[in-house]
Amino acid sequence: MRVQVIDHPLVAHKVSVLRDKSTPSPVFRQLTDELVTLLAYEATREVKTVEIQVETPVAMTKGIAFAKPTPLVVPILRAGLGMLEGMTRLVPTAEVGFLGMARNEETLDIITYAERLPSDLTGRQVFVLDPMLATGGTLIESIKFLFDRGAADVTCICLIAAPEGLARLEQSYGGNDKVHLILGALDEKLDENAYIVPGLGDAGDRLYGVAH
Ligand SMILES: O=P(O)(O)OC[C@H]1O[C@H](OP(=O)(O)OP(=O)(O)O)[C@H](O)[C@@H]1O
Ligand SMILES: O=c1cc[nH]c(=O)[nH]1
Ligand SMILES: [Mg+2]
């Protein structure tokens, strides 16, 4: 498993504003979108391409197109939905599949309440979008789902991760070179409720305006 924490001032600045509890939902959504485009730049470095011919107004030249089958982008509902548009703007030919998963906040068990993915993912490059990697339960479940369907490789883009979740993913996929993690920040720890510290609170609630 390859893990990259993107060390860049543009990323760090946007993460800082996301963390601020006074940042309202519309700004939070906008920043999430912008942050994804920055992280996607690195996450798609190994996306499969084919060479094509392009005619400029001056001459023929070589260009590239995304190879087929096109990448599959999978936002994990609900919070991952806030990352979808930023990703598809950069990979417009990508197909989109959906996984709906929620943590039972008492037991931390993962409930999969929705699944709309192609039944056969053989040979597909998959990009999973989920802002928070806390205990790692949700991502482990998602990655397993995708490999069970035949995915060739799985790249997860997360805005913030906790060391505890990363360690759990290492246990499950450490030896698997088909799993990549792209992170906007690696935080200190989880608190007693398995929330990331310092984190940004509940990403789904902050994106979609649930007041506390
Ligand atoms: O690493 P884990 O401990 O599994 O936690 C991370 C998950 O928790 C959040 O989703 P949540 O379950 O709150 O659902 P939501 O997106 O509907 O808010 C987050 O978006 C991740 O999917
Ligand atoms: O800190 C956390 C942990 C899980 N889910 C979130 O949205 N935030
Ligand atoms: Mg939530």
Automatic annotation (TrEMBL):
EC number: 2.4.2.9
Reaction catalyzed: UMP + diphosphate = 5-phospho-alpha-D-ribose 1-diphosphate + uracil
Positions contributing to uracil binding: 196, 201-203
Keyword rRNA-binding attributed: no
InterPro entries, alphabetized: PRTase-like, PRTase_dom, Upp_B, UPRT, UPRTase/APRTase
Keyword Secreted assigned: no
Keywords carried by this UniProt record: Allosteric enzyme, Glycosyltransferase, GTP-binding, Magnesium, Nucleotide-binding, Transferase
GO molecular function: glycosyltransferase activity
A Pfam short name: UPRTase
Enzyme's top EC category: transferase
Pathway: Pyrimidine metabolism; UMP biosynthesis via salvage pathway; UMP from uracil: step 1/1
Notes on activation and inhibition: Allosterically activated by GTP.
Record CDD domains: PRTases_typeI
Family stated for the protein in its record: Belongs to the UPRTase family.
HAMAP family: Upp_B
Function: Catalyzes the conversion of uracil and 5-phospho-alpha-D-ribose 1-diphosphate (PRPP) to UMP and diphosphate.
Protein name stated in the entry: Uracil phosphoribosyltransferase
Lineage per the UniProt record: Bacteria, Bacillati, Actinomycetota, Actinomycetes, Micrococcales
